[in-house]
Specification:
The chain is of the alpha/beta class. The chain has a domain of 259 residues: Rossmann fold (3-Layer(aba) Sandwich), CATH 3.40.50.1460. 34% of the residues lie in helices and 15% in strands. It has twelve helices and twelve strands. The chain has a seven-stranded mixed beta sheet with strand order 3-2-1-4-8-9-12. It is elongated. Keywords: GPI-anchor biosynthesis, Membrane, Signal, Transmembrane, Transmembrane helix. This is GPI-anchor transamidase. One of its GO terms (cellular component) is GPI-anchor transamidase complex. Pfam families: Peptidase_C13 (PF01650).
Length: 389
Protein backbone atom coordinates (compact mmCIF):
# COMPACT_ATOMS: atom_id res chain seq x y z
CA UNK A 1 0.00 0.00 0.00
CA UNK A 2 1.40 3.36 -1.02
CA UNK A 3 1.21 6.11 1.60
CA UNK A 4 1.35 9.64 0.27
CA UNK A 5 2.37 12.71 2.22
CA UNK A 6 -0.91 14.49 1.51
CA UNK A 7 -2.89 11.45 2.66
CA UNK A 8 -1.00 11.31 5.93
CA UNK A 9 -1.46 15.02 6.49
CA UNK A 10 -5.20 14.67 5.88
CA UNK A 11 -5.42 11.78 8.32
CA UNK A 12 -3.40 13.72 10.87
CA UNK A 13 -5.74 16.69 10.53
CA UNK A 14 -8.86 14.54 10.91
CA UNK A 15 -7.58 12.72 14.00
CA UNK A 16 -6.47 15.98 15.58
CA UNK A 17 -9.87 17.58 15.04
CA UNK A 18 -11.74 14.52 16.28
CA UNK A 19 -9.47 14.24 19.30
CA UNK A 20 -10.01 17.90 20.13
CA UNK A 21 -13.78 17.60 19.80
CA UNK A 22 -13.89 14.49 21.96
CA UNK A 23 -11.68 16.11 24.56
CA UNK A 24 -14.20 18.91 25.01
CA UNK A 25 -17.11 16.53 25.62
CA UNK A 26 -18.29 15.44 29.06
CA UNK A 27 -19.02 11.72 28.91
CA UNK A 28 -21.08 10.44 31.84
CA UNK A 29 -22.08 6.80 32.16
CA UNK A 30 -25.57 5.71 33.24
CA UNK A 31 -24.30 4.87 36.72
CA UNK A 32 -22.61 8.26 37.05
CA UNK A 33 -25.76 10.05 35.93
CA UNK A 34 -27.84 8.07 38.43
CA UNK A 35 -25.45 9.05 41.24
CA UNK A 36 -25.77 12.70 40.25
CA UNK A 37 -29.57 12.50 40.33
CA UNK A 38 -29.60 10.73 43.69
CA UNK A 39 -27.35 13.40 45.18
CA UNK A 40 -29.67 16.19 44.01
CA UNK A 41 -32.67 17.70 45.77
CA UNK A 42 -36.27 16.57 45.28
CA UNK A 43 -36.59 18.61 42.06
CA UNK A 44 -40.21 19.52 42.79
CA UNK A 45 -41.68 22.80 41.59
CA UNK A 46 -44.78 23.12 43.79
CA UNK A 47 -46.12 22.01 47.18
CA UNK A 48 -49.56 20.89 48.24
CA UNK A 49 -51.07 19.86 51.59
CA UNK A 50 -54.09 17.65 52.28
CA UNK A 51 -55.16 17.99 55.93
CA UNK A 52 -58.01 15.79 57.18
CA UNK A 53 -59.77 15.45 60.52
CA UNK A 54 -61.96 12.37 60.13
CA UNK A 55 -63.94 12.63 63.38
CA UNK A 56 -66.79 14.78 64.68
CA UNK A 57 -68.52 15.68 68.00
CA UNK A 58 -67.33 17.79 70.93
CA UNK A 59 -65.28 15.12 72.71
CA UNK A 60 -63.05 14.91 69.61
CA UNK A 61 -62.06 18.59 69.97
CA UNK A 62 -58.34 17.65 69.81
CA UNK A 63 -58.63 16.21 66.29
CA UNK A 64 -59.88 19.48 64.88
CA UNK A 65 -57.15 21.30 66.84
CA UNK A 66 -54.57 18.88 65.39
CA UNK A 67 -55.47 19.59 61.79
CA UNK A 68 -55.92 23.36 62.26
CA UNK A 69 -52.51 23.53 63.94
CA UNK A 70 -50.81 21.97 60.93
CA UNK A 71 -52.91 24.15 58.64
CA UNK A 72 -51.52 27.23 60.38
CA UNK A 73 -47.96 25.85 60.18
CA UNK A 74 -47.89 25.05 56.46
CA UNK A 75 -49.40 28.46 55.69
CA UNK A 76 -46.74 30.14 57.83
CA UNK A 77 -44.04 28.23 55.93
CA UNK A 78 -45.31 29.41 52.57
CA UNK A 79 -47.96 27.06 51.15
CA UNK A 80 -50.89 29.24 49.98
CA UNK A 81 -54.53 28.43 50.70
CA UNK A 82 -55.02 27.68 47.01
CA UNK A 83 -52.71 24.67 47.45
CA UNK A 84 -54.12 23.42 50.75
CA UNK A 85 -57.13 21.11 50.93
CA UNK A 86 -58.73 21.24 54.38
CA UNK A 87 -61.30 18.61 55.39
CA UNK A 88 -62.95 18.72 58.83
CA UNK A 89 -66.33 18.40 60.50
CA UNK A 90 -66.21 22.08 61.56
CA UNK A 91 -68.59 21.46 64.46
CA UNK A 92 -66.34 22.61 67.32
CA UNK A 93 -65.94 26.40 67.08
CA UNK A 94 -69.69 27.04 67.26
CA UNK A 95 -70.60 24.07 69.45
CA UNK A 96 -72.99 24.99 72.31
CA UNK A 97 -70.51 23.46 74.78
CA UNK A 98 -67.68 25.76 73.69
CA UNK A 99 -66.99 28.25 76.48
CA UNK A 100 -65.15 30.41 73.94
CA UNK A 101 -67.54 30.63 70.95
CA UNK A 102 -65.97 30.86 67.51
CA UNK A 103 -62.55 29.69 68.66
CA UNK A 104 -60.36 26.57 68.66
CA UNK A 105 -57.23 26.34 70.83
CA UNK A 106 -54.42 23.79 70.98
CA UNK A 107 -52.88 24.91 74.28
CA UNK A 108 -54.26 25.33 77.76
CA UNK A 109 -53.06 28.93 77.98
CA UNK A 110 -55.38 29.77 75.05
CA UNK A 111 -52.63 31.86 73.56
CA UNK A 112 -53.59 31.50 69.91
CA UNK A 113 -56.95 31.05 68.23
CA UNK A 114 -56.55 28.49 65.45
CA UNK A 115 -59.96 29.19 63.96
CA UNK A 116 -60.12 32.96 63.54
CA UNK A 117 -61.25 34.53 60.29
CA UNK A 118 -58.54 33.34 57.92
CA UNK A 119 -59.25 29.64 57.44
CA UNK A 120 -60.65 28.21 54.22
CA UNK A 121 -62.44 24.90 54.76
CA UNK A 122 -62.81 23.00 51.49
CA UNK A 123 -64.83 20.02 52.75
CA UNK A 124 -66.87 20.36 55.95
CA UNK A 125 -69.42 18.31 57.84
CA UNK A 126 -70.93 15.50 55.83
CA UNK A 127 -68.65 16.28 52.89
CA UNK A 128 -65.82 14.58 54.82
CA UNK A 129 -66.35 11.10 53.41
CA UNK A 130 -64.19 8.23 52.21
CA UNK A 131 -65.50 8.71 48.68
CA UNK A 132 -64.58 12.40 48.57
CA UNK A 133 -61.14 11.72 50.04
CA UNK A 134 -60.34 9.06 47.43
CA UNK A 135 -61.79 11.20 44.61
CA UNK A 136 -59.65 14.08 45.82
CA UNK A 137 -56.44 12.05 45.62
CA UNK A 138 -57.23 10.49 42.24
CA UNK A 139 -58.95 13.57 40.76
CA UNK A 140 -62.01 11.62 39.70
CA UNK A 141 -64.62 14.38 39.62
CA UNK A 142 -67.29 15.42 37.19
CA UNK A 143 -66.82 18.55 35.09
CA UNK A 144 -68.85 20.71 37.48
CA UNK A 145 -66.67 20.15 40.53
CA UNK A 146 -65.05 23.45 41.66
CA UNK A 147 -61.34 23.81 40.96
CA UNK A 148 -60.83 25.21 44.47
CA UNK A 149 -61.85 21.81 45.88
CA UNK A 150 -59.54 19.76 43.66
CA UNK A 151 -55.98 18.58 44.19
CA UNK A 152 -54.47 20.05 41.01
CA UNK A 153 -51.07 18.40 41.27
CA UNK A 154 -48.68 17.09 38.61
CA UNK A 155 -45.50 15.02 38.35
CA UNK A 156 -43.51 17.89 39.91
CA UNK A 157 -45.66 18.22 43.04
CA UNK A 158 -44.62 17.35 46.59
CA UNK A 159 -47.69 16.50 48.67
CA UNK A 160 -48.01 16.47 52.46
CA UNK A 161 -50.96 14.34 53.57
CA UNK A 162 -52.03 14.44 57.22
CA UNK A 163 -54.84 12.35 58.76
CA UNK A 164 -56.10 12.39 62.34
CA UNK A 165 -59.05 10.69 64.01
CA UNK A 166 -60.00 7.30 65.44
CA UNK A 167 -58.64 4.15 63.88
CA UNK A 168 -57.64 0.54 64.38
CA UNK A 169 -55.63 -2.17 62.70
CA UNK A 170 -55.54 -1.10 59.01
CA UNK A 171 -58.62 1.13 59.13
CA UNK A 172 -59.53 4.74 59.91
CA UNK A 173 -63.05 5.84 60.78
CA UNK A 174 -64.70 8.73 58.93
CA UNK A 175 -67.37 10.63 60.89
CA UNK A 176 -68.20 7.49 62.94
CA UNK A 177 -70.20 6.35 59.90
CA UNK A 178 -67.72 4.59 57.58
CA UNK A 179 -64.13 3.42 57.35
CA UNK A 180 -61.22 3.65 54.94
CA UNK A 181 -58.75 0.77 54.83
CA UNK A 182 -55.01 0.73 54.31
CA UNK A 183 -55.51 -1.01 50.95
CA UNK A 184 -57.83 1.81 49.83
CA UNK A 185 -55.21 4.47 50.46
CA UNK A 186 -52.45 2.33 48.92
CA UNK A 187 -54.47 1.82 45.73
CA UNK A 188 -55.33 5.54 45.56
CA UNK A 189 -51.62 6.39 45.77
CA UNK A 190 -50.88 3.91 42.98
CA UNK A 191 -53.48 5.62 40.79
CA UNK A 192 -51.81 8.94 41.57
CA UNK A 193 -48.45 7.49 40.55
CA UNK A 194 -49.79 6.04 37.29
CA UNK A 195 -51.44 9.36 36.45
CA UNK A 196 -48.25 11.31 37.32
CA UNK A 197 -49.95 13.29 40.06
CA UNK A 198 -46.98 13.59 42.41
CA UNK A 199 -43.22 13.80 42.68
CA UNK A 200 -43.02 12.77 46.33
CA UNK A 201 -45.59 12.17 49.09
CA UNK A 202 -45.09 12.60 52.82
CA UNK A 203 -47.87 10.69 54.61
CA UNK A 204 -48.46 11.40 58.31
CA UNK A 205 -51.19 9.85 60.43
CA UNK A 206 -52.05 10.40 64.11
CA UNK A 207 -54.49 7.77 65.36
CA UNK A 208 -54.55 4.53 67.32
CA UNK A 209 -52.57 1.74 65.57
CA UNK A 210 -51.57 4.34 62.98
CA UNK A 211 -48.53 2.48 61.62
CA UNK A 212 -50.78 -0.22 60.16
CA UNK A 213 -52.22 2.32 57.72
CA UNK A 214 -49.03 2.65 55.65
CA UNK A 215 -47.88 -0.97 55.65
CA UNK A 216 -49.75 -1.74 52.41
CA UNK A 217 -48.22 1.12 50.40
CA UNK A 218 -46.33 -0.06 47.30
CA UNK A 219 -45.95 3.02 45.09
CA UNK A 220 -42.56 4.76 44.81
CA UNK A 221 -41.41 8.03 46.40
CA UNK A 222 -43.62 7.84 49.49
CA UNK A 223 -42.30 8.66 52.96
CA UNK A 224 -44.67 7.69 55.79
CA UNK A 225 -44.86 8.17 59.57
CA UNK A 226 -47.43 7.09 62.14
CA UNK A 227 -48.02 7.77 65.82
CA UNK A 228 -48.40 4.21 67.15
CA UNK A 229 -47.83 0.59 66.23
CA UNK A 230 -50.43 -2.17 66.03
CA UNK A 231 -52.25 -2.79 69.34
CA UNK A 232 -51.13 0.59 70.70
CA UNK A 233 -53.25 3.66 71.36
CA UNK A 234 -52.39 7.22 70.37
CA UNK A 235 -52.62 9.54 73.36
CA UNK A 236 -53.64 13.14 73.93
CA UNK A 237 -51.09 15.57 75.34
CA UNK A 238 -53.07 17.70 77.78
CA UNK A 239 -56.53 19.04 78.55
CA UNK A 240 -57.84 22.55 79.07
CA UNK A 241 -59.93 22.70 82.24
CA UNK A 242 -61.87 25.72 80.94
CA UNK A 243 -62.78 23.91 77.73
CA UNK A 244 -63.23 20.58 79.48
CA UNK A 245 -61.59 18.24 76.94
CA UNK A 246 -58.16 17.36 75.57
CA UNK A 247 -56.98 19.99 73.09
CA UNK A 248 -54.17 18.24 71.17
CA UNK A 249 -52.61 14.78 70.66
CA UNK A 250 -49.06 14.01 71.79
CA UNK A 251 -47.70 13.03 68.36
CA UNK A 252 -49.00 16.19 66.71
CA UNK A 253 -47.92 18.31 69.69
CA UNK A 254 -44.25 17.31 69.36
CA UNK A 255 -44.41 17.66 65.59
CA UNK A 256 -45.63 21.24 65.98
CA UNK A 257 -43.19 21.94 68.80
CA UNK A 258 -40.32 21.24 66.40
CA UNK A 259 -41.84 22.95 63.34
CA UNK A 260 -42.41 26.18 65.30
CA UNK A 261 -38.62 26.54 65.52
CA UNK A 262 -38.08 26.78 61.75
CA UNK A 263 -38.93 29.34 59.08
CA UNK A 264 -39.54 29.05 55.34
CA UNK A 265 -35.79 29.29 54.57
CA UNK A 266 -34.76 26.67 57.10
CA UNK A 267 -32.24 23.95 56.21
CA UNK A 268 -33.46 21.59 58.96
CA UNK A 269 -33.89 18.05 57.68
CA UNK A 270 -36.52 15.39 58.22
CA UNK A 271 -34.35 13.17 60.43
CA UNK A 272 -34.21 15.95 63.05
CA UNK A 273 -38.01 15.88 63.30
CA UNK A 274 -38.02 12.10 63.53
CA UNK A 275 -35.59 12.31 66.47
CA UNK A 276 -38.42 13.94 68.46
CA UNK A 277 -40.58 10.84 68.09
CA UNK A 278 -39.39 9.02 71.20
CA UNK A 279 -41.47 6.83 73.47
CA UNK A 280 -40.84 9.28 76.30
CA UNK A 281 -42.49 12.06 74.28
CA UNK A 282 -45.24 10.21 72.44
CA UNK A 283 -46.05 7.46 75.03
CA UNK A 284 -46.46 5.07 72.12
CA UNK A 285 -44.18 3.66 69.41
CA UNK A 286 -44.14 5.94 66.34
CA UNK A 287 -43.18 4.31 63.07
CA UNK A 288 -41.30 5.56 60.02
CA UNK A 289 -41.33 3.88 56.61
CA UNK A 290 -38.57 4.88 54.19
CA UNK A 291 -38.09 1.88 51.87
CA UNK A 292 -40.29 3.38 49.13
CA UNK A 293 -38.57 6.76 49.32
CA UNK A 294 -35.58 7.32 47.03
CA UNK A 295 -33.80 9.93 49.17
CA UNK A 296 -32.10 9.62 52.54
CA UNK A 297 -34.16 11.42 55.19
CA UNK A 298 -30.95 13.18 56.25
CA UNK A 299 -31.04 14.98 52.89
CA UNK A 300 -34.76 15.83 52.91
CA UNK A 301 -35.53 19.38 53.99
CA UNK A 302 -38.60 19.83 56.17
CA UNK A 303 -39.63 22.63 53.85
CA UNK A 304 -39.73 20.13 50.96
CA UNK A 305 -43.15 19.18 52.34
CA UNK A 306 -44.18 21.66 55.04
CA UNK A 307 -43.13 24.72 53.02
CA UNK A 308 -43.29 25.99 49.48
CA UNK A 309 -40.70 26.27 46.71
CA UNK A 310 -38.53 29.25 47.60
CA UNK A 311 -35.38 28.80 45.50
CA UNK A 312 -36.10 30.95 42.46
CA UNK A 313 -33.09 32.17 40.47
CA UNK A 314 -33.52 35.47 38.60
CA UNK A 315 -31.15 36.18 35.71
CA UNK A 316 -29.18 39.40 35.90
CA UNK A 317 -29.86 41.25 32.64
CA UNK A 318 -27.40 44.02 31.84
CA UNK A 319 -29.29 45.44 28.87
CA UNK A 320 -32.95 46.24 28.41
CA UNK A 321 -35.27 43.79 26.68
CA UNK A 322 -35.76 45.97 23.61
CA UNK A 323 -32.01 46.48 23.19
CA UNK A 324 -31.32 42.75 23.51
CA UNK A 325 -34.06 41.97 21.00
CA UNK A 326 -32.65 44.28 18.31
CA UNK A 327 -28.86 44.24 18.74
CA UNK A 328 -26.25 41.48 18.65
CA UNK A 329 -23.39 41.01 21.13
CA UNK A 330 -21.20 43.52 19.26
CA UNK A 331 -23.86 46.24 19.37
CA UNK A 332 -24.81 45.90 15.70
CA UNK A 333 -28.43 46.38 14.69
CA UNK A 334 -29.85 43.13 13.32
CA UNK A 335 -33.00 42.40 11.40
CA UNK A 336 -35.68 40.11 12.80
CA UNK A 337 -34.90 37.56 10.10
CA UNK A 338 -31.28 37.28 11.20
CA UNK A 339 -31.94 37.73 14.89
CA UNK A 340 -32.64 34.04 15.45
CA UNK A 341 -29.27 33.21 13.91
CA UNK A 342 -27.32 35.58 16.17
CA UNK A 343 -29.05 34.65 19.44
CA UNK A 344 -27.04 32.29 21.60
CA UNK A 345 -28.32 29.92 24.20
CA UNK A 346 -27.51 30.69 27.80
CA UNK A 347 -24.89 28.32 29.12
CA UNK A 348 -25.62 26.77 32.46
CA UNK A 349 -22.78 26.97 34.93
CA UNK A 350 -21.60 23.85 36.62
CA UNK A 351 -22.32 25.45 40.00
CA UNK A 352 -26.05 25.47 39.17
CA UNK A 353 -26.12 21.69 39.52
CA UNK A 354 -25.55 19.66 42.64
CA UNK A 355 -22.87 17.38 41.23
CA UNK A 356 -21.04 15.44 43.87
CA UNK A 357 -17.21 15.55 43.92
CA UNK A 358 -16.87 11.94 42.77
CA UNK A 359 -18.92 12.58 39.62
CA UNK A 360 -16.92 15.72 38.80
CA UNK A 361 -13.66 13.77 39.17
CA UNK A 362 -14.94 11.05 36.85
CA UNK A 363 -15.79 13.60 34.18
CA UNK A 364 -12.41 15.32 34.50
CA UNK A 365 -10.55 11.99 34.28
CA UNK A 366 -12.52 11.01 31.16
CA UNK A 367 -11.63 14.32 29.51
CA UNK A 368 -7.95 13.86 30.38
CA UNK A 369 -7.85 10.35 28.93
CA UNK A 370 -9.39 11.56 25.66
CA UNK A 371 -6.83 14.37 25.38
CA UNK A 372 -3.96 11.91 25.90
CA UNK A 373 -5.42 9.60 23.27
CA UNK A 374 -5.62 12.45 20.77
CA UNK A 375 -1.98 13.42 21.42
CA UNK A 376 -0.68 9.85 21.06
CA UNK A 377 -2.59 9.43 17.81
CA UNK A 378 -0.98 12.56 16.39
CA UNK A 379 2.51 11.36 17.38
CA UNK A 380 1.99 7.96 15.71
CA UNK A 381 0.77 9.52 12.47
CA UNK A 382 3.74 11.90 12.33
CA UNK A 383 6.04 8.91 12.83
CA UNK A 384 4.38 7.01 9.97
CA UNK A 385 4.81 10.05 7.75
CA UNK A 386 8.59 10.13 8.39
CA UNK A 387 8.85 6.37 7.77
CA UNK A 388 6.97 6.64 4.48
CA UNK A 389 9.16 9.54 3.45
Amino acid sequence: MKITISGLLNLLFCFTVIGGVLADQHFVTNDEAENIIKASDSRHTNNWAVLVSTSRFWFNYRHMANVLSLYRTVKRLGIPDSQIILMLSDDIACNPRNAFPGTVFNNQDQGFDLYGNLIEVDYRGYEVTVENFVRLLTDRWDENHPRSKRLLTDENSNIFIYLTGHGGNEFLKFQDAEEIGSYDIADAFEQMYEKKRYNEIFFMIDTCQANSMYERFYSPNILAVGSSKVDESSYSHHSDLDIGVAVIDRFTYYTLDFLEKIDKNSTATMDKLFDEYTFENIHSSPGIRTDLFKRDVKDVLLTDFFGNVQNVVVDEVEDGILYTANYDEDGNLVSRQNKSQTTKLHQVKKADFNYDEESITLVKNSKGRIQVFGLLTSVVLVGLWFVAK
